[in-house]
Specification:
about 190 residues, mainly beta, SH3 type barrels, OB fold (Dihydrolipoamide Acetyltransferase, E2P), 3 domains, six-stranded antiparallel sheet
């Protein structure tokens, strides 16, 4: 067991039987009262925000979390199969851990997954992905209004908005967090 004074931002704690990640930890020393740590933590599974005041000598359980790079291999029902790039071990990770950005995940992409004693608890994909356009309407001749966008489908099946000059077969860079078009990829 560690003391509250050992906790740092980003640590994952076992708190009230749940895993929470510390987002912000402030040391407070109000006037003539005892010092304490004001913690803002997010539940790893539900995403719910938890606020708590720890006494400086209060015991906390810091979870041992291993975060690593993995390669996404394929989809298997409600989970994704990933492979450790060094040991070639394969793991099944629930799709929900990746959040809405999972729709931009392409086979062979590198992902980051955090495990707490063999159980995957957090997962993320790169901030941007280069994807090929598989379907979009052709641009209407003469429609050159600045900033005009049209719908397009990328190779993963996700729908995004792209500028009018993008055609089927073009590769585009997509922001995986927002699903927004970033730029056309040359080559």
């Amino acid at each position: 067991m560690a003391k509250a004074s050992d906790v740092k931002n980003g640590n994952v704690l076992r708190f009230n039987g749940e895993l929470v990640q510390v987002e912000e930890l402030l040391h407070r020393t109000p006037g003539n009262l005892r010092a304490f740590y004001q913690a803002r933590m997010r539940n790893v599974k539900t995403g719910k925000l938890v606020e708590y005041r720890f006494r400086t000598d209060e015991e906390v359980d810091i979870a041992r979390v291993e975060t690593n790079n993995y390669q996404y291999l394929y989809e298997d029902g409600e989970s994704l199969v990933i492979m450790d790039n060094t040991t070639y071990d394969q793991h099944n990770v629930p799709k929900r851990l990746f959040g809405p950005s999972v729709k931009f995940l392409k086979e062979g992409m590198n992902v980051i997954v955090a495990f707490e004693s063999e159980e995957p608890i957090m997962a993320s994909i790169p901030g941007s992905a280069e994807l090929e356009i598989t379907y979009t309407e052709p641009a209407v001749k003469g429609d050159t209004s600045t900033g005009a966008m049209k719908n397009a489908t990328v190779e993963t099946g996700a729908e995004i908005k792209v500028p009018l000059f993008i055609n089927i077969g073009d590769k585009v860079k997509v922001d995986t967090a927002t699903g927004a078009y970033v730029e056309r990829v040359k080559g």
